[in-house]
Amino acid sequence: MLALAALIFAPPALLAAGPHHTQHLALLGKGLPKINREVLSAVDRVQATAPDGGGYFIGVHAVPAECPIGYPLALKGMAILVPTRTTSYCSGSSYSALIEALDHLLTKRPDPVRLEQLRMQEPDGGRREDEVKAWGWWNADGFGCDFALVQYLGIGERIKAADARPGDFMNISWNSGLGHSVVFLGWVRDGAKGPSIAYWSSQKGTNGLGDQVSPLSSVKELNAVRLTHPERVLTFTPGAVDRKAAKGELPPSLGVEK
User: Fold this and answer.
1) Where are any strands of DSSP class E within 165-250?
2) What is the CA radius of gyration of the chain?
3) Is residue 120 within 8 Å of residue 135, measured between CB atoms?
4) Do 29 and 19 meet the contact criterion of CB atoms below 8 Å apart?
5) What predicted TM-score, i.e. pTM, was given to this entire model?
6) Which of 4, 136, 158, 223 has the smallest count of CB within 10 Å of its CB?
7) Partners of 199 in the β-ladder
8) pLDDT, tens digit, for every residue of 62-88?
9) What pLDDT sits at residue 257?
């Protein structure tokens, strides 16, 4: 990885790998803390379930309704999601990377109560609504990674976007008013449309799961968080979520003229 001050830039090999590769850990993991390495490994495992991206779909009222991720997701052998579609969408992909990372980091299973608080479906298989338990907060409008990881679960911390490492989680607020939930991969100083951000998520441009590079000129705000205490999943008490506590910030300058 190439770094200027605290900024971590995506290496050329990552940008040349195409959207659907499974080499995030190999290309980005050197020198990273164990937890970030596990998130990148989790990204590779999630991506491997959809070699062509798997398709992107949103539609709460469709039959069947949108599905966060397109494969059976489990934590220590216990079901988190039984998919109703093979497609995915952004917050479903990033939450799946979190769950897959926890699957490797935890030494034992969460108890049934905490498992239920992590699940992405209701017990009858129905949709878990926004702002309901961990997934509902992760999937909520706004800075869902902050709501869930930092506030509800208490297993992560807020970081400055400029301090982000590959394997950190981000919410991107676009100038258009829409948002995106992603795993950060690195900054790109000389992208096709100027200074950019590289991330992994699920989006139309990659037919679902895949790497994407977007210009910072299209970004209004960023909110970055880091998984720091995965072990607390075994003991957490759900925290109250204060939307105002999750604040966005402008993208960092990448040391180029604008």
Assistant:
1) 169-174, 179-191, 194-203, 208-215, 219-227
2) 17
3) yes
4) no
5) 0.96
6) 4
7) 184, 212
8) 999 999 999 999 999 999 999 999 999
9) 42
